[in-house]
Design goal:
Helix content is 37%, strand content 17%. With 351 residues, it is α/β, with parallel strands linked by helices. The protein has an 8-stranded mixed beta sheet, with helices on both faces.
C-alpha cells in the first residue's frame, strides 16, 4: 500500500510537471477597478518620492490595488518592498506611511489593499482568508519582480499587525522574498482559534464557535447577504487599554479612513471559519531568508511576536522590542517606529 501511495503521488507530480512543460497559456481576467486619484491618505504626501496608483493580480484572478512610491533622483534597478496591514486597514493608513517612508530612504515600495478590501477587487467584500491574504504578498512579489526598475533578487516584504503574520507565512512559501519585517504582529489564526492569550484554547470553545459561525452561514445564504462584525465601537471607561488605542486610531482623525474595515465597515463574520481552521506559521521554522520581528514593549499583542520569533531558526532572524511602545504606536508614531533599524535590516539583506 505504501509503495502504491508513493507511485500515485509520483505520477501526480510528473503529470503536473508535464502540464507545465507543455506551456499551455491561461488567460487571467483583470477586474476593472475604480481608483481614487486624489491624495486621500491619513498622512501627508512626501516631496521626496514619486507616487502613483498601480494594479496587479494574484493567482486567484483577484486584481489588487496599490500605491507605488519611487524615490526621486534615482536610477537603475532598485531594491523593492511590498507592504500591507494592519488587518482590516487600507493602504491609505499605516501601510502607506511605512511604504512612503521607506521610499524616502531609497527603496521602491508598494502599499497594497488585500483581496476583498479597500480599492482591491474580489467578491464578496470584507472577506479575510489566511491562504488568499498570504498569496497577496506573493502576488505583490510577482508584480515587483517583473518591473524594469526593480532588482528581482532584492525584494522584501513588510506586514503590519495581522499582515505581519501573513508576511512570515509568505516568507515560508515564497523563496523569492529575501527579507521580511513583521511589525506589531498578530497571529490572526491563533487569536481566532484560541482567544487573546490563549484563554479559550480548548476543543469545546472552538466547537461552540464553529456552531455559531455555521449557523450564520445558513442565515447569510437564506438572506442573500453577509452579516458584518461591529468594529471598534466607542469603548467604555473600564475597557482594556488596547481597545481604547484601536478606537483612537481608527475612529478619530488620527487614522480614520472610510474604506477601512476597522474604521467601521466591518468584516464578513464567517471569515473567521477559515482563520479558525487553517493555522499559519506551520513551516516558519523552515524559512531560510532574513526575518525581523518588531514589537512594542507595552503591546498587548507582544506575545504573538515573541512566540513567532522563538520558532524561527538561523542567525539572520532578529527580534526588536521597542521601549515604551504599545500596539498602535507602531502604526503611525514616527518617534516609536524604528525606521533606522528597519532600513538597516533591509540594506543588509537586500544586497
Amino acid at each position: 500500500m505504501k509503495a502504491l501511495t508513493i507511485l500515485v503521488a509520483s505520477q501526480l507530480v510528473l503529470g503536473l510537471s508535464a502540464f507545465a512543460q507543455a506551456g499551455q497559456a491561461v488567460d487571467t481576467p483583470t477586474e476593472k477597478l475604480e481608483l481614487t486619484q486624489e491624495w486621500d491618505k491619513v498622512f501627508p504626501k512626501s516631496s521626496q518620492v514619486k507616487h502613483s496608483k498601480v494594479t496587479f493580480h494574484n493567482r486567484y484572478g483577484i486584481t489588487l490595488a496599490a500605491d507605488l512610491y519611487i524615490p526621486k533622483n534615482v536610477s537603475g534597478k532598485l531594491p523593492a518592498i511590498a507592504v500591507s496591514g494592519p488587518f482590516g486597514a487600507v493602504k491609505e493608513q499605516s501601510s502607506g506611511l511605512y511604504a512612503q517612508t521607506l521610499a524616502e530612504r531609497g527603496f521602491l515600495t508598494i502599499a497594497f489593499d488585500p483581496s476583498f478590501t479597500g480599492e482591491s477587487g474580489g467578491q464578496p467584500r470584507s472577506v479575510a482568508s489566511p491562504d488568499i491574504n498570504t498569496e497577496d504578498f506573493s502576488a505583490a512579489v510577482d508584480y515587483l519582480a517583473t518591473r524594469d526598475d526593480v532588482d528581482a533578487e532584492r525584494i522584501g516584504i513588510l506586514g503590519i499587525c495581522g499582515f505581519g503574520g501573513f508576511a512570515i507565512n509568505a516568507a515560508a512559501v515564497d523563496t523569492r522574498i529575501k527579507a521580511t519585517v513583521a511589525s506589531t504582529m498578530y497571529d490572526i489564526c491563533r487569536g481566532t482559534a484560541n482567544g487573546y492569550f490563549d484563554a479559550n484554547d480548548n476543543a469545546e470553545a472552538r466547537y461552540q464557535m464553529r456552531k455559531q459561525l455555521n449557523a450564520q452561514r445558513t442565515e447569510d445564504y437564506r438572506n442573500g447577504t453577509y452579516k458584518r462584525t461591529v468594529m471598534n465601537p466607542k469603548p467604555e471607561a473600564d475597557a482594556p487599554q488596547f481597545m481604547k488605542d484601536y478606537y483612537d486610531y481608527y475612529k478619530t482623525e488620527r487614522g480614520f479612513h472610510p474604506r477601512s474595515i476597522n474604521s467601521g465597515l466591518g468584516w464578513n463574520v464567517t471569515s473567521s471559519l477559515s482563520l479558525l481552521n487553517m493555522p499559519i506559521l506551520a513551516y516558519s521554522d523552515e524559512i531560510r531568508s532574513a526575518v525581523l520581528v518588531v514589537h512594542g514593549e507595552k503591546a498587548h499583542s507582544r506575545y504573538f511576536g515573541e512566540d513567532a520569533f522563538k520558532k524561527l531558526k538561523g542567525d539572520n532572524k532578529e527580534l526588536l522590542i521597542v521601549p515604551g511602545a504599545n500596539h498602535t504606536d507602531l502604526y503611525d508614531n514616527l518617534e516609536k517606529i524604528p525606521f533606522d533599524k528597519i532600513e538597516q535590516f533591509y540594506r543588509k539583506y537586500l544586497k
